[in-house]
Amino acid sequence: NDSTQLLTVENGVEVDGKAAYVESKIDLREMAAMFLGGPPSTPLQPEAGRVDNMMTPTTGLDDKDLKDMNLGNMNTFRTTYLRTDGHTDLSLTSSDIDDCGGGVLVVECTNPAAGVTFAGGFKWYGIVIVLGEIKGATGNALVQGSLMGAEAGKDAKISGTLDIWWNQDAINKVMNDLKPKFNTYPKLNTWRSLDKAEVDALP
Fold it and tell me: Is 196 helix (H, G, I), strand (E, B) or coil?
């Protein structure tokens, strides 16, 4: 696998990997909409047939319901959308998935006071997009692929124990299997890495 360890956080202190100074300069809502198929609205409105699992306050959102879902695995990718509107933080744990979830996971917190915690050995292979605050991680949570998220206008600050590995194989599988709707929004044709000074200078 083409994997690069980006960051290891233990008890809120970075102990290995690259500096986690990134302030979000990309519209994650538009990126999430590419996978869900609907417009980048608030809240998101997934297109029928593009989402394998969807859970909103209307349909219920708790650990028992998550256990009944098929959240995919390393071989079979699925698209999952979770939305919470209340003040309660959403905690995703290993008990919510069968060993390791796979595909695209979009979590939307429409209330700025709410956020997401990765706990109890949570593992995901693919892309995780959090539209809200990532409040922390406990119990050796692991993301292989990409984890993106931050409350609007704020840096992403993670406390607890979390391993984030950039995995090109996982990213390629997401693109090939789940086919985001690039025809709906601008397609990324080229990119380059920016150093911290360049990021800070962006409008």
Answer: helix
